[in-house]
Design brief:
By secondary structure, the protein is α+β, with helices and mostly antiparallel strands. The protein has helices at residues 16-23, 27-31, 42-71, 92-103, 158-174, 176-200, 216-219, 225-242, 255-261, 276-285, 292-303, 330-341, 351-364, 366-379; strands at 86-89, 108-119, 123-134, 137-149, 206-210, 245-249, 268-274, 307-312, 321-326, 391-393. Helix 4 (92-103) packs across helix 12 (330-341) and helix 10 (276-285) packs antiparallel against helix 11.
Length: 394
């Protein structure tokens, strides 16, 4: 069975010493319920929040000045720095040209996907939805529904089938790793579908995606050889053939990069690294089947050096954002993302991605999905017998 690592969560906080360094107290003290506050003293809580937040903000402010003065000047000259790395400004005139010539002219598409799942004893249903939008309107919506059935409808030995089903469900309950891989595969299929829609269904000159274009769910195949092969071929087309793309992430996965980003002024961006080191970590740690490791390594060697990672800041009132773009078009790509982000300066995130998310959740959101599932159970005469009301959404 293929396995892997998730690159997420607080995997860096492992062991009592790490816990003490991260939280400033011993784990034994945290586990001592007698040391916990009793009741809900709002005044005491707010005092603690103000103290901790004020200290953290002051510390980050001092670090910001130090980074601008001492770290930014050596970004480009550090060992292993990719060509063109460093800090760059963007002018309002440059962004206005992109607004009028690309964004409002309908020459940019953005894509967003979502997954929603329902689990019951006899059946699991997963709905995947993708929305592709531009400022000219929604370019298309695409969906797929997967049904996990543990009891076959026909069997030569019904008793043996029932016993096998019980044993299978017992193993599922005892083995959380299976569920983890299921969630990983769900994310992998959604990530693949988002990129497939960008490559195959969009006719726009520029394409905007969410997250890391070479996501670990794709470089690993999420444990599925078919997904790995399809994903690597699709990413080759995106990176080597189309090239005019920019992916923006809203999470805090790249905390080191974001630390540099907070030292940026509004309208600045920094080019930091290529995706090669990230790709190598995935390939070296994931346990592939058959020749999957060789295929993934070849892709990383040939394509990941062409994808540059950096951080931009649309407004000093909003957080910096990590972006990914092709090295041949990176300066223009980040300006496309920044021009779209300043349309809502209070958010500082590409507006087209927000529009794509809204369109996607409107078409494939959990409320409508839940209503359809509930109605189908009622039509089957099950009413609420199997309806657990458990909905899992991205």
């Amino acid at each position: 069975m293929a396995g892997g690592f998730p690159f997420e969560g607080d995997a860096d906080v492992v062991g009592d010493d790490d816990f003490r360094k991260a939280f400033g107290e011993d784990l034994d003290k945290t586990l001592n319920i007698d040391s916990w506050s009793q009741g809900f003293d709002i005044a005491d809580i707010m005092d603690r929040f103000r103290s901790e937040i004020s200290g953290a903000v002051d510390k980050e402010g001092r670090a910001r000045a130090l980074i601008r003065d001492e770290v930014f000047p050596i970004i480009a000259s550090r060992p292993g720095a990719p060509k063109g790395s460093g800090v760059y400004p963007t002018t309002p005139e440059q962004l206005e040209i992109i607004h009028n010539g690309l964004l409002f002219a309908g020459k940019v598409d953005a894509v967003y996907g979502t997954t929603t799942s329902h689990e019951s004893l006899p059946l699991g249903i997963t709905q995947l939805g993708i929305a592709l939008v531009g400022y000219g309107g929604t370019s298309g919506t695409f969906s797929q529904r997967l049904f996990r059935k543990e009891m076959t409808q026909q069997s030569t030995d019904p008793v043996q089938e029932a016993i096998a089903s019980i044993n299978h469900r017992m193993r599922r309950a005892a083995g959380p790793r299976h569920d983890t891989l299921t969630k990983l595969a769900r994310r992998g299929i959604r990530a693949y579908a988002e990129r497939a829609v960008l490559v195959e269904k969009s006719s726009a000159e520029w394409r905007i995606g969410h997250g890391n274009p070479c996501a670990y769910e794709l470089l690993s195949g999420s444990g599925y050889r078919s997904l790995l092969v399809a994903a690597l071929e699709l990413l080759r087309r995106l990176i080597q053939e189309h090239q005019k793309f920019v992916f923006v992430t809203s999470d805090m996965e790249q905390r080191g990069y974001l630390t540099l980003g907070y030292a940026l002024r509004a309208g600045e961006y920094i080019l930091i690294d290529t995706m090669q080191s990230f790709g190598e970590r995935v390939v070296n740690r994931w346990k592939y089947e058959d020749d999957g490791a060789q295929q993934a390594k070849k892709f990383v060697d040939e394509c990941c050096p062409d994808v540059v990672c950096g951080v931009f800041r649309a407004s000093e009132r909003t957080p910096p954002l990590t972006f990914y773009a092709h090295r041949e078009h990176v300066d223009f790509a980040v300006r496309v993302a920044m021009a779209d982000s300043i349309l809502r300066p209070e958010r500082g995130f590409p507006m087209l991605l927000d529009v794509a998310e809204t369109a996607c959740r409107s078409a494939f959101g959990e409320d409508g999905f839940l209503g359809l599932v509930h109605d189908a159970y009622a039509q089957a005469g099950a009413n609420l017998e199997y309806f657990t009301d458990r909905i899992k959404s991205r």
